[in-house]
Every structure is written in C-alpha cells, then in structure tokens.
Amino acid sequence: MALPKVVIIGRPNVGKSTLFNRLVGKRIALVDDTPGVTRDRREGEADLSDLHFIAVDTAGLEEAGPETLSGRMRQQTEAALGDAAAALLVIDARAGLTPLDRHFADWMRGQKVPLVLVANKAEGSAADPGLYEAFELGLGESVAISAEHGVGMADLYEALAPHLDALAAEEEEGDEEEGPLRLAIVGRPNAGKSTLINKILEEERLVTGPEAGITRDSIEIEWSFEGRDVRLIDTAGVRKRAKVQDKLERLSVADTRRAIDFAEVVIILLDATKGLEAQDLRIADQVLQEGRALIMCLSKWDAAEDQSRLFNGVRAALADGLSQISGVPLLTVSGLSGKGIDTLIKVAFEQRDAWSRRVSTGQLNRWFENAQETNPPPAPKGRRIKMRYITQAKTRPPTFIVFGNRLEALPASYQRYLVNSLRQEFGLEGVPLRLNLRSKANPFD
User: Fold this and answer.
1) Which of 91, 165, 253, 378 measures 20 to 30 Å from 159, CA to CA?
2) Domain end: 174, 192, 207, which one?
3) Residue 381 in marked binding region
C-alpha cells in the first residue's frame, strides 16, 4: 500500500522547508532566511512517531498570474494537493497573520484536502499574539511548533493522526469485496422463525410445528434475493436463563449466541400474539453488545388483534427499553401468507449498508464543529473540555474516535448527544455506534 502524502504549504519564509527536514529526519531541502528558496516541490519519506507518510515541501504561495515564475510555482503546489491525504498550512507565529496568510487560508477552504493549521516559530512568549491571531483564519486552533527546535511535534502528531488513520482504514476496507448478507433470525421459542424461513425459501426446508423448541442448532441456508446473495441463519429459541436446565438446550442457546456473533444483521422475531417481553429486550441488548445491526419484527401479524394499538405499544416499549440506540426498524411479517417478507429483506440490506458506512474525515469534522457550536461541551469545575478532531476508526459497526483534552471528564449525557447527532446526520439510525475518547498524550513518551 502506497504511503499517504502530506503537503506542506504556506507563504514564503514561514519555515516550510525546516519542517520538511524535521519530518524526514535529515537536511534535504535548502533552508535560508531569503524568501523563495524552494521552487520545485520536493518529496521525502517522513516519520512522526508511528505515522509513516510522504512529506511534500512546496514553494511559497504568492498571488501571481500563471505566466509568471511565482504563478508556475503555485501550480506545482496545486498539483501536489491533488493526491494528498492532508495538508499542513504553515504560518509564522512571530510575524503574525499577513494578508497572504488570510488569502491562502480562504483558498484552502475550497480544496477537498483535510487541513491542519500549523503556527511555526512558536517558541517563547513573543509568539503568543500570533497564536491568538491565528483563530481569525477560521480553521480552528493552530498547532504551535518550532520546526527548528523540534518543539510541538507531539501536538502535530495528534492533529495529523486522525486524517492518516482514516485514510488507511478506507484503503484497507476498500480492498474487501462485499459477500453475501449474513442474516440471523433469533427470538424466543415458537416465535415462528422456522416457519418464516420456509416461506422465504418457498419450501418446507425446516421442521415446524406447534411445539416450542423444535429447532436445536443453528442452520445456515444459502439463498438469493433479487440477484443478491443471502446466508440465512435459523436459530434455536432463547428462553430466560433460569428456565434453561436441559443440557441440550444450553448448547442450543450457546449456538444461537455464536450465530449472532457471526451475523451482520440480526432479526429478532417477536410473537405478535404475545407482544414484547423482557426476554426480547435482553436478546436485543446482546445483539447490540456484539455490535450487530438490528431489526425487530412482529411475526404472526395476520393473527394479531388491534394491530395499530399493538404496533404503537411495541414501538414505545422499544424506545424505552433500548434507550442506548435510536431508530431500530420495527416491521411486521406473516410466515403463513408471506406478507412483509420483501420489505424485511430490503431493510436488512439497508441496515447492513448503514452498519458498513464510512464517513469522510472532512464531513465528520464539519459536523463536529457544528455540533459543538449548537451545544458546547460543559466545563466541569470551571475547566474547559477541549474537543479537537473526530475520525472514524472502522466500520461494522461504525466506530469513531474523538481527540482532545480532558475528555475523561466529558459527561455521558454529552456523549449521548454526540452519538444521537451522528446518527441523524449520517443516516446511522438503528445500528450500534462506538464512540471512543482519546485525550492528549505525548506519543514520544
């Protein structure tokens, strides 16, 4: 896998080449106080703790027409950004902001490359005014460094890591081909699981009857729905643990739990003639703990009485009993007539898509800034909690990492706010999300 590229940009003489040399670990680029020493972009393999990437040193950005030398140098910088994983916009903290800094900050907002604002030459108190002034660029807090003395590299690591981690995860998952939908159907005994699968297959593939507990082990069946492969998994009914005394039934319950772990989407079948019971919620909680996409489905719907009242009552009970997740689909189906089966399978594919969804780092951080503006994080004991960046570490289920300071003090209520906002913004309703908090630490310790 090719190393990601990190492009270093900024106006002339802010220390881009010094930073480049620091990252690649040797003096490759010429460094001098004279502006405009670098004219061609230069690349080198760079290491920042456990981050490995190609650093790209570019000419100082200046406003100029394409026919001039400065204009042609700027075109080189634009070309370098074309395949970059991230860009470091460098300013001089001691000199403060200049019109050129503001111009190119505005220009970078139009680029699709994730951007980290770096305030170089930040050693000593003389740089403090420039660091405060950097907020005027509207690019968030700058990373204060001294490329010449190696100060602030841990902070630069923290700012750059989310972008490179996310890119590596995208490339890794992009290599994986989508296989058949692994769909497990679970529930209490006699909820109609085997009858439903027989109707889906249009054959008496599984033994059924009025007796509870006919199915004893998990059965996998290959099937195709509208040209898409499905692997159906029928499971034994799961009763309350206190009622499970027979050794064979204990083995069946363990086999069902393994089936949940193997599945991508789990349908919990509820007997519409009995409604929702506490055991159904316990099974649902287990599915969510395993990180699987979940669908709740009322079976034997044609035999249910007062359907509207029943449906609304179950939906309200789910909202209360599964408060850790919102938007779990609630569907109805009949294993005798087949009504609702097509909708059920289509929703299962949609849930797998959401469960596998990856959100770009740029989209995430735009949402992240808006979420904090709408509802700022609290300040326990008057000390501010600073949330810097968010990135998606993996999918299946979607897992996100928030970087910042004092995140261990972030209340659970605010974490729920972030998770619920994430669901609504990116169409992740009904799938489990993981939100991990990573407070600032020196990676070089």
Assistant:
1) 378
2) 174
3) no
Say if residue 32 carries a ligand binding annotation.
Answer: no
As a whole number of Å, the CA-based R_g of the chain is: 28
Degrees to nearest 5, angle at CA 396 with 390 and 400: 10
- Does residue 227 have a known ligand-binding role? no
- 386 assigned to a ligand binding site: no
Angular region, 439: left φ>0, alpha ψ -120 to 50, beta rest: beta
Q: How far is the C-alpha of 323 from the C-alpha of 424, rounded, in Å?
A: 15
325-359 pLDDT, tens digit each: 888 999 999 988 999 999 999 999 999 999 999 88
Same domain, 348 and 234: yes
191 is in an annotated binding site: yes
Q: What is the dihedral of CA 16, 22, 23, 29, to 10 degrees?
A: 60
User: Which amino acid does the sequence have at 178?
Assistant: E
Q: Is 224 annotated as a binding residue?
A: no
Burial (CB < 10 A; 0-12, 13-18, 19+), residue 177, is exposed
For residue 120, say whether it is annotated as part of any ligand binding site.
yes
Q: Which amino acid would we find at residue 75?
A: Q
The pLDDT score that the predictor gives to residue 134 is 92
The residue with tokens 């035999």 is 303
Are 374 and 234 in the same domain? no
Average pLDDT of every residue of the chain: 81
DSSP letter at 146 equals B
144 is in an annotated binding site: no
Q: Which two tokens stand for residue 385?
A: 């909690």
The total of structural domains in the chain comes to 3
Q: How far apart are CA 406 and CA 381, in angstroms?
A: 12
Domain limits for position 188: 181-355
| 432 marked ligand binding residue | no
Residue 109 annotated as part of some ligand binding site: no
Residue 189 annotated as binding site:
yes
Q: What angle do CA 330, 328, 253 make, to 5 degrees?
A: 85
76 and 156 co-located in one domain:
yes
Does residue 53 sit in the same domain as residue 69? yes
359 is in an annotated binding site: no
